[in-house]
């Protein structure tokens, strides 16, 4: 791992990209492009802020989150790999996998036009090997500007198939979760995790009226989050993802989260770009798989 001075020397861009150490010992990249500001931590290649010019922040991160080595950051865009939630093979391991609590390597940084392009990589390490994952590589490309593009590529270096789940577990900032609506999943079947994993069908737009944890299966649809209080729409288009998860813990669930202030649950909704459950990926030896989410903001009229 490069230290702060090496990162700034190799990748720093005056007025655009600078690296800093936090009091807790993490490394943070502060980003200012012509059309947006953003923050990314090297632990987890974890984007915690993105704010296009002329808009309020689009990404929510808890004010109470731990910013310490080996502790998952609450909010932003955690990368879940190689499993979503708990391990799909029934064995034990960190919630949402190990990728979000490992330091990634910054491999590339460049300003192209008005967008900053960053590439992070993660390979096998002591933790992944202890969990049975020794022959893989991850590449994560962020394109930060007026729009936000997040692209995760998994490479299988083994001579046997690699079965994995993955997620870009994105927390979107909203004025009040009671007021929002999410379009795009009408008619899609989902597993309702707050109702004993019963399979249900979505009718119309999604509104959040209580604890919500829904796994929408076999869908590649774009989701559009309408936030009438802030008079904006957030569109989440995706490729390579066949699962969408919508989550908000509500007051009862937030009270159980030590890294979230009890008042924060109404300030976000998670719309997650995922491959999980029956949509888990089986990757052939030597193959790669890419999942992408592209986020755009526009004004909500009327």
TrEMBL record:
For this entry, list what GO says about its biological process: carbohydrate metabolic process
Q: Has UniProt tagged this entry with the keyword Signal?
A: no
The keyword Ribonucleoprotein is annotated on this UniProt entry: no
Recorded catalytic reaction(s): these are: alpha-D-glucose 6-phosphate = beta-D-glucose 6-phosphate
Q: Sorted alphabetically, which keywords does the UniProt record give? A: Isomerase
Enzyme Commission code: 5.1.3.15
The family database entries (Pfam families) matched by this protein are listed as:
Aldose_epim
- SUPFAM superfamilies recorded for this chain? Galactose mutarotase-like
- What range does the record give for the signal peptide? none
- Single GO MF annotation: glucose-6-phosphate 1-epimerase activity
Family membership noted in the UniProt record: Belongs to the glucose-6-phosphate 1-epimerase family.
Q: This protein is called what?
A: Putative glucose-6-phosphate 1-epimerase
Which source organism does the UniProt entry give?
A: Tunturiibacter gelidiferens
């Amino acid at each position: 791992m490069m230290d702060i001075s090496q990162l700034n020397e190799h990748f720093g861009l005056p007025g655009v990209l600078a690296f800093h150490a936090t009091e807790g010992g993490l490394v943070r990249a502060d980003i200012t492009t012509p059309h947006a500001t953003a923050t990314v931590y090297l632990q987890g290649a974890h984007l915690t802020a993105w704010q296009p010019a002329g808009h309020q922040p689009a990404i929510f991160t808890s004010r109470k989150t731990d910013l310490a080595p080996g502790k998952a950051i609450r909010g932003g865009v955690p990368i879940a790999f190689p499993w979503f939630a708990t391990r799909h093979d029934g064995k034990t391991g960190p919630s949402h996998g190990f990728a979000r609590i490992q330091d990634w390597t910054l491999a590339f940084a460049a300003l192209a036009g008005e967008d900053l392009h960053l590439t992070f990589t993660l390979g096998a390490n002591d933790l992944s090997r202890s969990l049975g994952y020794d022959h893989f590589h991850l590449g994560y490309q962020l394109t930060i500007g007026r729009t936000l593009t997040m692209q995760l590529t998994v490479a299988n270096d083994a001579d046997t198939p690699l079965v994995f789940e993955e997620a870009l577990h994105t927390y979107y900032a909203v004025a009040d979760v009671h007021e929002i609506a999410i379009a795009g999943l009408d008619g899609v079947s989902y597993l309702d995790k707050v109702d004993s994993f019963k399979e249900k069908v979505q009718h119309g737009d999604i509104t959040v009226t209580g604890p919500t944890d829904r796994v929408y299966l076999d869908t590649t649809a774009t989701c559009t989050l309408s936030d009438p209080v802030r008079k904006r729409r957030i569109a989440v288009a995706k490729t390579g993802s066949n699962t969408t998860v919508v989550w908000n813990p509500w007051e009862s669930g937030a009270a159980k989260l030590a890294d979230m202030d009890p008042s924060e649950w109404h300030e976000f909704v998670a719309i997650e770009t995922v491959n999980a459950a029956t949509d888990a990926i089986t990757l052939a030896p030597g193959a790669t798989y890419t999942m992408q989410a592209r986020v755009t903001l526009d004004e909500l009229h009327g």
